[in-house]
Sequence to fold (465 residues):
Amino acid sequence: MEELVDRIKGFVDILVLASGYQSSGLPAIWDVDNIKKAVRWGLFFEDVLKSLRLYSNYVESVKELDAALFNLTSDPIFPLGLAHLSSATLSNARRFVLEHLLQTHPIKDEHLIAILRAVVEMDIDELSEAHNDCPKMYIDRLTLQMDSLELAAAGKGLTKADKTLMPEDDPNTSKYLKEIDENLLTDPIFNDETRGCIGADASFFVIQEILKRQAVMFRMSSIEKGLNSLSEIITRNTVGSEKIRFEWKSVDGASSDGDQILMELEQFSQWRSRCLSYLLDKRTIKLHSGAELIFQAPKEQWIQIFEGLKSSTCPDNFLEIMEILLLGLISSKWNYVIQNLISLPCDFLSIMTKLSDLRELLQRKTPFLFSDKENDILQYLSSLLRSHPHKLWKLPSILVAAAIPSWSVLFKTHLSDVENHYNESYSAIRFHGCDQHGSKHQYCQVTDMIQSLYIFHIRFSPGRD
Fold:
């Protein structure tokens, strides 16, 4: 059993790589030969489980194996995505490997071609052991299996070109993919027992998974379109109705205070649009989802991931680590931040007044309401920024403001840095792209940061700060 568990540990490493990434966080590259080796490892474990069934003490052996696997998966550094590993999983290990190889997102052409070549060659090799004319038998079998999907019926009304291109705007596409989904779920050929016995049908299994992925990607694309439309509506300049209230001129045509009010409304609207554009951006939402998944793992595990990325020579890695950490800190209040930004009115206060209110905030006693997980994230972020405090200027101001709690040392350090940049007349190194100082700062990165800090920590509180 000990030897078997050691082999399972090696199999876990294969599955991690099959998911698309090395332990360092860098992409994993798979060629045809390595894909074959990985699938053969799956076959090895399937054979082991089958051999156990031949023994009279099969039930006891499986219980012993599951107990060993439970101890293995309970380790804090064990990959969280494989925590469900069991004897049942190993009974379908080839399918498990192929599923992981196909879960890489986005899947590249080279990777997909390597998978298809590998499974076709394995299927033909397996058929050649029992049949002479194996290529013809392979094609006949695959054709029969494809007919079971009833793709022709599902694609009724579509031309061959339509099926190839699958345009998202085609009204038949949604129906086509829905019917494929129903066939994949209800056809008896795809029940768990049949799917577990891939055998010479690895090609068909891969096609099945690709069709599922296509259906999922279509739905994701539809959601993204809706999200983009919503983002455009929300971030569109909504100051028009307010302009009517303040747009006036004196009798002789000279400008009045109304012009200044209009200018402030315009700048506030642009600031809010920038904030919402970032929060609703597809990349941000993906990073936010990834951050939620990463921080479900034990602290030791996600720190190990970030340390590996931090040691990379790529300069963007450090900024992305900080961005993911900040997104992890606002994960529980994500909807709250967006909803409040959408409904937030302009306050017409000067930047100097807002900075003064932020200074007063440091004198207040704010309750410590962070969870242990959030506190761990904050501590790690603070340690990273200890020698690079200026890096916060390279990230969106609303993310920085919403994520860092006002009771933290990091908030005091950052506010002090903001104040120094606001008051300085010159600096050898400028991180905010503005050469003004004091009240001359207008609509630059310094005022943007002060605005974000003020809005989040003074105008409204998410109940987590």
